[in-house]
Amino acid sequence: MGKVAFLFPGQGSQAVGMGKQLAEVNETAAAFFKKADEILKTPLSQIMFEGPQEELTLTTNAQPALLTTSMAVLAVFEEAGIKPDYVAGHSLGEYSALVAAGALSFEEGVYAVRKRGECMEEAVPAGQGAMAAILGMDAGLLQDVTKEVSEEGHAVQIANMNSRQQIVISGTKQGVDNACKQAKEKGAKRAIPLKVSGPFHSSLMKPAAEQFREVLDSITIHSTQVPVVANVTADCVTDSEVIKEKLIEQLYSPVRWYESIERMVELGVDTFIEIGPGKVLAGLMKSIAPSAKVYAIYDQETIEATISKLKGEGIC
């Protein structure tokens, strides 16, 4: 029998109403939203359930909101006795993966990602950084483009390697604009500006990384039994000190997502379950590992349907 991996979405998957239906019908899930409000001393659940979208999208709200919803969904799902062989999360989702693997408590995870969001927002003033998705261009060619633009004085680099067909770049606004133009001139199918509040996973985030180190020093990170596939290396980590260093590096390094999925396939994973708002990661799986079995769970209905299918396959 093949192995199972749990995947957790990152920033961009947030949407008003996330987790609301599950919290209304399931006490286990509702407790997570209540706990997050208490930890952050703010009505985060109200922002999640009712909006406005602009407030939810703020990095300092989106990050704890995504982690909270993912953990609420996971808690309900795990009641069926399903356990992962590996876990991974996209960017911010790596923190959800670490909570799922036992490296972080839920309470310290929520605290850490709120602080992470604050560090990221302070690192680069609004409007100075940007990100864009480049579609249909080889990673090596895009790397050459970003290097050339950076050497001209406008910092830009590869940020998210989502799939071989979709790579995100990040940097100064001028750097991203110039790189988008050059990428299209050199054969990219499309260059799509992203609605984000900063140049995530770029060298411009190094000040945030140094500030965030103090936050990670103040919390307890445990070694894990379940391997976490790290964004920075696309390989397994279990040691607490290694996990901590990779979380710091992650702020200014590319998310090697499709390589992470390919690594898990090499390790025998044939069933991937996205846990949390939306279906972004499940959608990417079609081009990364088309033969894998993929599920996305985000409310009571999708949880129950997925458990039923997994029982039919003998997984639980």
**Morphology call:** globular
Structural class by sheet pairing and helices:
alpha/beta
Q: Which percent range fits the helix content?
A: 40-55%
Radius of gyration: 19 Å
Biggest sheet: strands, sense, closure?
4 strands, parallel
Strand proportion: 15-25%
Strand order of the main beta sheet, please? 2-1-9-10
- The count of β-strands is 10
Work out the count of structural domains.
2
Q: What is the string of SSEs from the N terminus onward?
A: EHHHHHEHHEHEEHEHEEHHEHEH
State the fourth-level CATH superfamily of the largest domain: Malonyl-Coenzyme A Acyl Carrier Protein, domain 2
CATH class of the largest domain: Alpha Beta
What's the average pLDDT?
A: 96
Number of helices: 14
- CATH fold field value of the largest domain: Malonyl-Coenzyme A Acyl Carrier Protein, domain 2
> What is the terminal-to-terminal distance?
12 Å
Low-confidence segments:
none
CATH architecture of the largest domain: 3-Layer(aba) Sandwich
How would you explain this protein's 3D organization?
With 316 residues, the protein is of the alpha/beta class. The protein has 2 domains: 3-123 and 204-312, Malonyl-Coenzyme A Acyl Carrier Protein, domain 2, CATH 3.40.366; 129-196, Alpha-Beta Plaits, CATH 3.30.70. The termini are close together. The chain is globular and about 55 Å long. 51% of the residues lie in helices and 16% in strands. Strands 2-1-9-10 form a 4-stranded parallel sheet, sandwiched between helices. The chain has helices at 20-25, 27-40, 44-50, 53-57, 59-78, 93-101, 106-123, 139-151, 173-185, 206-217, 240-250, 257-266, 280-288, 300-312, and strands at 3-8, 86-89, 129-135, 156-163, 166-172, 190-193, 228-229, 236-237, 269-275, 293-297. Strand 9, helix 13 (280-288) and strand 10 (293-297) form a beta-alpha-beta unit.
